[in-house]
Amino acid sequence: MFKAIFMEGLEKDCSLSWTGSKNSVLKAIRFKKWNVYAKAPFGSPDRVVEYLGRYTHKIAITRHRILEVNATHIKFRYKDYADGSKTKQMWLTHQEFLRRFEQHILPKRFVKIRHFGYLRLQGKTERLALIRSALNMQPAKPKVIIPFQIRMFEKYGRDIHKCP
What we know:
Elements: H1 2-12, H2 22-30, H3 45-56, E1 66-69, E2 73-80, E3 86-93, H4 94-102, H5 124-134, H6 148-156
Helix pairs in contact: 1-2
């Protein structure tokens, strides 16, 4: 149902710029298998977008942390976790500031996913155990560490300890 409604809207929308003929693009999309998962949002769709946006579109530094910019340097506020999470200020040259900022730009097609709330790393195992207990679920099975030699044998059928 969603696919049909979406395709109908796409066919009517003439503001899109098409690479190739519009009909060939629509035909290719129409024959793709779609997997649509939707459930009722909490609050409103706008609240969902706002919530997800806080976690998926964070940038390295926000405007309110930049305190001063002059012809050669940038002064900004940061939190020094090595010094008891104290807020400090730092001056950097434009070049050094951009170099550090660029380190936060992800490579093409790289997806950044961060876990917050009960899925954050610190104490995650304990929280998940508590949630399982509250929901009367079985405890998680312990992870079994399988040596890579066995995994290689299972996947490729060859013993890596023997010469070919």
